[in-house]
Every structure is written in C-alpha cells, then in structure tokens.
Amino acid sequence: MKILVSAFTGRCLVNWLPLADEIRKKNGRCDFLLFPRVSDPDHRALLREDIQSFALVTEQIKEDFSFVRSTEADCAERIRSAVRNQRYEALLMTTCHVGPELKLKNWLKPSSPEIEVIGLQHGFVQPWWYYEELSASFDKIGVFGSAFVDRFTEPFRSRVIPLSLPSLDPYVGEKGNPLGATLFALQRDMSVELVDQMATELEIARRRKVIIRPHPEHVSLYDGLRSKFAFSDPAMPVNDVLRSVSAVVTSGSTLALASLSMRIPTVVLDHLGGAEYRPFGIVAEEMSSASIIQTLQRQEPESFWNELQAVLVRYTGRAGFRAEDAYNSLRSSIVRKSDARDSTFSRLRGWLNRHIAQ
Question: Where are the beta strands (DSSP E) in the chain?
C-alpha cells in the first residue's frame, strides 16, 4: 500500500504511528503531510528527525490555523506537486475536523482522483454529529473500534471503518508501579481551585503524592499549583509516566485507554463527556475524592480486569494486534474501492463493445 497521513499535533499522529510502521514492514510506503500548530507545545513532536524523514511537506500553522509563512494556494500546490503521479491509495487525516486537513480532499482529488480520503477519530469523546456535517471533506471515517460505529446515523454508517487504536499496542505487557503516585490528567475544564481541592484530598486519602499532567495546550493554566504538587513533564512519553504511577484520575482523556491497557486502576470524572467511559466501569459518580476511592476499589478484583478486556476490544481493537488489524481493515477498504472502480470500468467497456459491434 502507498498511504499518506496528515497531522497538526504530535499526539494525533502518535495514535497511528504503529500503523505507519506496519505498512512499511509489509513493503508499503507511508509518508506524512504535516502542519505543526505552533501555539500547541506538542507540535514539536512533528519536527523530530524520525517523523521528518517521512514528511513530504511541513508547513507550520498559527493558533487560528492560518499558515505562518506560506499561503494556502502555495501550500496546496506544494502538496499537489509532491503527490502527483505517485498514486497514493489513501490519505489518512488524523485531525479531520479542523484546519488545513479539511481542505486536503479538494486539493488532491483533481490531480489524484484515485486516492481515498479517510478522516480519523482523534479522541475518545467526540461530537460525532459534527463529523457527519463535515463528511464532504472525506470519503470515509476511521474509528478506534466497532463500538463507535453506532455513534453515527444509519445512512453514514456504511462509510465508517473500525480500524483499532494502534498506539495502544506498545502498552501491552507494561505495568504501573503499585507503590507509585496518583496521576491526575487534566483538561482545561477544571478550575485551579477544584484541582487543588481534589488533589489535596487524594493525597490524604491514598497516602500517595499526586502528579498533575495537564493537556499539552493547557499547561500554563495550572502553573499556580506547581509549588504544591509535582507536575509531569508534557514532553515525557506517556508510557514512561504510567510506569511510575499506581492509579490514574482523568476528566476523559484518551490517556485512560493507555492506563487501562497497562492494568493501572483508572478513574474518569463524570463531566466533559466522561460518561462515554461508563461501559468500562471506571466513572466516578461524584466529583469527590471519596467517589474516586470507591471507583478504584471496584477495580481490585481480578474479575474486573477479565471483563474489561472484552470492552477494550470493542472500543480499541485486539490487544497486541491493533496495528495489524488496522492495516487489514484499511487494505480491505482500499481493495473494495478498487474492485468497485474496476467493475464500473468493466461495465462501461462492455457497453462500448456491444454498441461498436452493432
């Protein structure tokens, strides 16, 4: 296969890097179109040498998604020039809901009509209706697991491909530290005062220190707490952080999927879409340390983890096989499109032959 992948943050690209490796391992080609969003500290991951070695085009964008140095017309032409005559079979857009990636289909299709444009789920909690509204920007949508197919309305479901979440594969077999700290992974929806209160209560209740890890875009919002709590370096890989902790508390971050894959007790707070995690049995009923402790205690029996495995498969794919399964699902989608195109050409050729014969 010859595949393009686009991204404007490192974390969204990381979700699919094992799939890129799988494509190359099977003698395919996987190249990148990158739009580092300079207002997000995580954009630096896109500038790493191992990522840049596969980048056809890298154009920085501002917070409002406009280009830093280039113009939209110039960027579009650079991309068309890089892709023209290469016969890429698919473009995977890791952040297909906003920014330059929304325009890639229009930029590429005139010169590369054969390419299949696939938008990708980039977080666990998503406004699925909005993906449907943007559906003119892609041919299909790839999701983390079969459980997400039903999030779409009936006419749109035929365009949804369960791909798995390949970034979880490296966590298989990893473990946390039962004697380690509690990791508090934050979004900007929680006030400094509430975080201060809950983290303090958790340190007392669990007799473990709390390490705060804000979302990369929101780190500065919680700087006032640095004198009181330890902070996780946002540049530190998630698996390195998780290996050092005994529990994770989050307001709905995809990080919860990584911690669960490592069998680390995990609690999701019931706001900002946290209820999406209810099938996992890890949602705290109240915004309190007591509710968090109760939710952690429910995860102590081995039976909890045995039942959780089936849920993880539905939402993220098969543990240890996610990259391979994503590859096979992607390949099947491309083959079906190719077969349909060949069938159309065959019928047209038959029609022409019959009329010429007459």
Answer: 2-7, 29-34, 55-58, 90-93, 116-120, 140-143, 160-162, 181-186, 210-214, 230-231, 245-250, 266-269, 283-284
- The kind and range of the H/E element at 145 are none
Q: What is the pLDDT along the chain (358 residues), one digit of tens a residue?
A: 999 999 999 989 999 999 999 999 999 999 999 999 999 888 999 999 999 999 999 999 999 999 999 999 999 999 999 998 889 999 999 988 889 999 999 999 988 899 999 999 988 888 899 999 998 999 999 999 999 999 999 889 999 999 999 999 988 888 999 999 999 988 767 888 988 999 999 999 999 999 999 876 777 778 888 899 999 887 788 889 999 999 999 987 788 999 999 999 999 988 766 778 999 999 998 888 899 999 999 999 999 999 999 999 999 999 999 999 999 999 999 976 555 554 444 455 554 555 555 5
Q: Where along the chain do its domains lie?
A: 2-168+319-349, 173-301
| Topology classification of domain 2-168+319-349 | Rossmann fold (3.40.50)
pTM score:
0.87
Fold match flag (2-168+319-349 vs 173-301): yes
What kind of architecture, by CATH, is found in domain 173-301? 3-Layer(aba) Sandwich (3.40)
